[in-house]
Amino acid sequence: MKKINKSRMRYYDIIVYTILFVMIILIGYYPLWSQNLSLVWNIDGLGQYYPAFIYTGKYLQEIFIGIFNGQLKFPSFDLAIGMGEDIIGSLNYYGFGDPLNIFAILVNDRNAPYLFSFMIVFRMWLSGLSLIKYLSNFNLDKVAVNISALAYVFCGFSVMGGTRYVEWLSVLIFSPMILLGVEKIIYNKNFTLFIVSVMYAALCGFYFLFMISVVLAFYLPIRLLFQKKSFRIMILEIVKSIFAYTVGILLAAPFFFPTLQSYFLSERKSEPIQNIVFNSNNYIPNVSIKFDKLISLQAVEPPNFLSGIIILELLAVVLLLFLPNNRRKLQCLIFFVITFVAYSLPITGYLFNGFGQTNDRWVFIVHLLLSGILAYVLTEYRKILEKEFAQHKSKGKKINIIFSLTGLMVFLNIIINLWGVYSSYGYDWTKEFIAYENSEVYTNSPVNFSTKVQKDSELYRVSNDILTGINGRPENVAMINDYYGLSYWFSVINNRSQEIVDQYSQSSLKWRSYGFASHNTMNTLSGVKYYFSKEPLVDPTGYQLIENVSFNNQNWFVYKNVNFQSIAFVLSEGEQGRFAINNPEDRELLIKSRNDADGKLEDIVYSGNTFEIKASASLGEKLLLLVPYHENWNAYVNGKKVDPRIGPMNYMYVILDNGENSVRFVYSNPFIKLGLISSILALVMCIIFYIYFKRSF
């Protein structure tokens, strides 16, 4: 009976939390809902996360259709992503691998902004639920836990960060679960939750997993020290945790390993680590904290993700000092001091980012800690009130009134914060979110309205001007409209691709490409057959106007590149030597090498991970495929495996045999295979451990 009542109480607490959460969403986000605005932020959200979400949905739909038709295909490369990218490597940071994005399979052109907005709200709700589960492990007051959960859900990291970058909300979900998993290991219950939580975190990407791993390096030893266990037992618990952590990573390896490979092969460069570690300025504390910047949400650049702290959370830190001394209080103080010192030191930002860069994206840990302290302080003061009102007949009612008023204060505090950032009375952040009714224009393309292009079945790329004057960021539109383009904007991109763009522009565009405008030679050398422009070309040399289309109530001019041959071509015998992309003479020499070749391309077919090419050649001539080189490509010439080489413009080439040639370029990511093997072995290990050690597993 007690178990049934406890279960009912747990569900009751979740229902109460959910009701309060929904009320805050309806009232706090009213400035958005009243204007029929989505939660798609018109900068990074629109340019990166939203198209990645749509792409993930379409990818899942293709797999489902394939299974239904008796075909099981999991492409790992897509020419439509950027100039051709590893799917997992480029999109994992945006949720390609996040288990929650299984819901993306429901996406279509009409419901995309609604589903995307729902997933943001759903993740926020889950993050609160996750914290409730974690805090409930410490037998804290249920009302206090619910209040803390609301403060956690609507903190600055969630509202200002998670709304901009939806995948940031995932760390708010798995962090409490990972910590709860550690608690279960400490108390010798089992480590299933820890394994699953680490696996989930690894599937979402290594970025925030690394951060929470740094936290674990402090959290676990401190928690063990307060359990009064022997040194041998402490070491054993740490070893068990490392083992479970490793198993969790291995279970996620099919996504985790390729993501790591793509990161290390990307063009992201960081300052030498010794310059960071041995820079004394990184250890000088900065304690100039402005509390008014912490207790309110602010739509400013750069955003302050530590903002949105509930006033009661700050008060709880002060009240903590006046509580009777015990082990829990001491642990709260230790964690708070460590966090406060860490926040004041510049080196912390580097540490949590693997010394690659510095920022405050790790402050979700601060919000998690403050929420925990709030729940603990409220619980302890409830005990004090119960003692004070021990002789009163209606003590329960009085205490409930006090806690209800406390909850109301937090509720109103959150509403005020949200209105302060979203309403016209505050920062009016609603201006940066797209309306549902206009959402399609951001994901559609004038390419879809061109009869000429739609009827052309040849393999080619399309280049275009900025698609809309509304957002000016159409870089990732091609991948969700089934054509091959040049523009992209991703945090992780093949360094060979970015070198092409940066050398051409003679500047670092930082993980993005706008294409090569109407530059005919560059477009020809990139396999561009059609160029879309909102204005007539001033210099149409090399182009022929073939069509006018209407898109977004604007007239677009469709030009055909008269110098286009294919997305691959044969080069004449001889070395091209060093090739400078920004050097016009080198580009013309490459065109000349193409025109002087005796051989020619006869046919090219692209499907998933494979290019099938038929070409004739004279002795020593090369086949240049206009796809940036990557270590995962394999090549076969007339059935013989050869190593593709880096050619002019960072594209890859193979040397052809004299006469007719059948060439295959196959993209095969070895880290996916290694990940699958590792995952299967880890799963088998879990099954064996479960059979023989059911109690501890």
UniProtKB/TrEMBL annotation:
InterPro entries: Uncharacterised_YfhO (IPR018580)
Domain of life: Bacteria
Membrane spanning stretches: 12-32, 114-132, 144-161, 193-222, 234-257, 305-323, 330-350, 362-379, 399-422, 671-693
Keyword Transmembrane: yes
Keywords: Membrane, Transmembrane, Transmembrane helix
Signal peptide: none
PANTHER family, alphabetized: INTEGRAL MEMBRANE PROTEIN (PTHR38454:SF1), INTEGRAL MEMBRANE PROTEIN-RELATED (PTHR38454)
Protein's name according to its UniProt entry: YfhO family protein
Species name: Enterococcus casseliflavus
